[in-house]
Task: structure prediction
Amino acid sequence: MKISACIIAFNEEKNIAGAIESIDWADEILLVDSKSTDRTREIAKSLGAKVLIQEWLGFAKQKQFATDHTAFDWVLSLDADERISPQLKDEILQLKQLSLNDLVDGYKLSRLSFYMNFPIRHGSWYPDWQLRLFNRKKGFWKNVLIHESFKMQDGARIEKLSGDILHYSIENAAHHHLMIGERYAPLAALQMFKQGKKTSPLKIMTVGLTTFLQTYVLKLGFLDGLAGFCIARFAAHHAFMKHLILWEKQRKSNRES
Result:
């Protein structure tokens, strides 16, 4: 079993070395860069990665491009702000020693995110299973605007590994707020709109509270202390924003029809 590890990136000079160093055991490391203006490509090449330049296609299409250009059929997909933990590395290296007949078609990996320098093990953030190690012949990246994932063919065999992907995505509170306002809420609303989903004034007024209670209370987010409270509070804000933006899109569409 030979593995191609692939990363998509744009202006990730602060993160890219850590990501690549955590997968330096892979048989190939492929970076697909969407025309970074910092030292991302330079750093990646210095660490032995193969670099391809591709204009930004969207998250799913960019990852599909990377998957299509790997040298080997077994692909490990990693984001620039993620790392493979030592435990997960050992598990994957054990898989590499197996014959192809002893492997399933894909493996789900749990993702452990860090927030305020604290590992988040409760709420809606963990275990956050991600299908990231897979035989590329057995599926494809779903073409969605946000929360892209690899979709296996019907009948494909999938198992879970116990080690974590370590995720360092949010720098501080201001960054978290910016990500929701500029990326996640608008993209989520657009995706919902394209799928024909509807919202209402009542939903807009209540979805924040229900999301907070679900994240902080029902999913035990309070066990993560202040970090858990902040995550639940931002989750509530994200839910409110995406439904409000969806409502605006609905009203505009109704006026134009």
